[in-house]
Amino acid sequence: MIPMPPLPVDAFLVPEQPLALPDGFTSARQQLTNGLPFTWSLTGEVGLVLHASIGDAIVWRDADPSALASTSADEVAPHLAPRGADPRAQVALRLLVRRARATLASIPLAAGLWRMTPDGDGAASVVELYVIGWAIHAGCVRGCGDFGSYIDLGWRRVGVAVDQFDPGAYDVRRRGGYLP
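Request: output the structure for the sequence above.
Response:
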């Protein structure tokens, strides 16, 4: 029997194994104890800001501080639970990539997102990010405190040329382009 080639949609299906940091990335797991927006530095001049939209923050203002506002577990589950009319079902979180107080890119927080920033403005790329997971609790959206909230991602500096290029590593089926 002839084996069937993989379907093009396979690259977009939920992976069977948990997301793992690709080779060459530095782990940057942060406990979110200062509330949102949360700012931290990757290098001397490049940093990230995690924030929720103001409308989402208002919705979570009166919620139980231990209630889960957003988690990457929903995105990597094989089947999403049905979502009702509850506006708290999905908190829109974004990461801002900043260099010397200037925002270079704004990217959505999505499990497995692999993004090189900044996008498309002709500037040299600064960092490459790979989002592994997160858990944001209502108390973190409201203010400071240790509610168990965290973000887990990997990053590496980019913009430096390489000596050799492997054209086989590029795969247009992956959103980020490069296979780990």
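The beta strands are 26-27, 30-31, 38-41, 46-52, 68-71, 93-99, 102-108, 114-117, 127-137, 150-157.
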